[in-house]
Design a protein that fits this description.
The protein has five helices and no strands. The chain has helices spanning 4-49, 53-56, 61-64, 71-101, 105-110. The two termini are 18 Å apart. The chain has one domain. The protein has 112 residues and is mainly α.
C-alpha cells in the first residue's frame, strides 16, 4: 500500500498530464481554426478581386483603393481583423483559465 504522500504525488502527476493533454488539444484546435481563417481570407480576396490577374497588370494598385471597386478589399480587411481579434481573445482566455485552474507550485510542496 502506498503512503498518502506517494498517492498525493501520483494524483498531482496525473492531473498535470491531463492538463497538458487538454492544453495540447486546445492548441491544435486554435491552429486548425487559424488555418481555416487563412484559407477563407485568401479565398475571399481571390473572389472579391476577380483573381490575381488584376495584380499582375502592374497598374497603380495604390490608386485602386480610392476607386469604387475597393469595397471587397475593405470587407476582407475588416473580416480578417475581426478573426484575428477573436483568436487572440480566445487564446488569452484559455491562458487565464489554465492559470486559475492549477494550484501554485509552493502549495504542493508545502503539503508533502
Amino acid at each position: 500500500m502506498k503512503s498518502l504522500d506517494e498517492q498525493e504525488k501520483l494524483i498531482f502527476e496525473r492531473a498535470s498530464r491531463l492538463k497538458r493533454k487538454r492544453l495540447k488539444r486546445e492548441l491544435g484546435a486554435l491552429s486548425a481554426a487559424s488555418l481555416v481563417c487563412l484559407a477563407v481570407i485568401t479565398g475571399s480576396v481571390y473572389s472579391f478581386t476577380g483573381g490575381y490577374s488584376r495584380m499582375a497588370d502592374g497598374e497603380s494598385m495604390g490608386a485602386f483603393m480610392l476607386s469604387s471597386e475597393a469595397g471587397g478589399y475593405v470587407l476582407v480587411t475588416v473580416l480578417a481583423f475581426a478573426a484575428g481579434v477573436t483568436v487572440a481573445v480566445l487564446a488569452v482566455r484559455s491562458a487565464q483559465k489554465s492559470k486559475r485552474g492549477s494550484p501554485p507550485e509552493d502549495d504542493r510542496k508545502d503539503s508533502s
